[in-house]
Design goal:
Largest sheet: 10 strands, antiparallel, barrel
Number of domains: 1
CATH class: Mainly Beta
Distance between the termini: 41 Å
Order of helices and strands: HEEEEEEEEEEH
Radius of gyration: 18 Å
CATH topology: Lipocalin
Length: 186
């Protein structure tokens, strides 16, 4: 009886967390759309950004290309609480904080050595299919840099609630939950 109660409690917690993150507009895989982006030639390109639930946190994995053409990979795990959380794999930042402004908007702050180097906003469109990241930053000396002012447009991939064109044939249409989508992610 006691084991059954514990299992039931764990399942309830898992379902609650899944439902909590399933309706977050930022969750999912986002691919860079260079044609719709305004990037400086010296700005890094985040080609793929993945937001996944990680227990009670969010894990953000960023794949990209540095200005010198070399591949980049960084990871951040934290909450959308505006507090600094450590970053791994990014030589230009120690911490990032993401703060939820509303259902579709996040405020981004990137720090290196405790000093803010980049700040901006991430906004998901009302239809949930695109997101726009607008950032500005400073160079290593602390001066404002036009090379670090850019707007990135990315599109949800492969599917989002109400966007079923990328799902395998025969996959049931209708409301897609994050657990179903996760099976088909790259």
């Amino acid at each position: 009886m006691k084991a059954r109660t514990i299992v039931l409690a764990l399942v309830t917690c898992f379902v609650g967390l899944t439902l909590c993150f399933a309706d977050d507009a930022n969750m999912g895989t986002w691919k860079l759309n260079e044609a719709k982006s305004k990037l400086s030639p010296t700005a890094p390109k985040n080609t793929t950004v993945v937001y996944d639930a990680a227990g009670g946190n969010v894990k953000v994995t960023v794949e990209g290309v540095a200005p010198d053409g070399k591949p980049t990979h960084s990871e951040w795990t934290g909450k959308f609480d505006g507090k600094d959380h450590p970053v791994t794999g990014d030589p230009n930042s120690d911490t990032r904080s993401l703060k939820k402004i509303d259902d579709r908007t996040l405020e981004l702050t990137v720090k290196k050595g405790g000093r803010v180097t980049t700040s901006g906003r991430i906004v998901v469109s009302a239809d949930g299919k695109t997101r726009t990241v607008t950032v500005s930053g400073t160079d290593p000396t602390g001066k404002s840099s036009t090379a670090l002012r850019y707007t990135i447009s990315s599109e949800r991939f492969p599917a989002s609630p109400g966007n079923t064109e990328c799902l395998p044939p025969g996959f049931p249409s209708g409301r897609i939950t994050s657990t179903r989508v996760k099976i088909y992610r790259m």
